[in-house]
Amino acid sequence: MNDDRTSAEIATLQAEIAFQGDSVQRLNDALASQQQDILMLQRQVALLGEQLRALRENGSHRDGAAEVEKPPHY
């Protein structure tokens, strides 16, 4: 009877370990995917920053007063 109980406890522990291993793998996959998303967003933000700087530089070279003037609808 004690051997049956021990075998059942071992089987339970093995099932829990397998579940935890699967959970860890799914969390790892999710983390890797999120990291790729973060890297992509960082590249996009850097590109947008460069574009904004270029627009500001082009605008200041053309007409310095353009940024001060309010649009006609104000």
TrEMBL record:
Coiled-coil portions: 24-58
Origin: domain of life: Bacteria
Keywords: Coiled coil
InterPro entries registered for this protein in UniProt: SlyX
Name of the protein: SlyX family protein
Organism ancestry: Bacteria, Pseudomonadati, Pseudomonadota, Gammaproteobacteria, Cellvibrionales
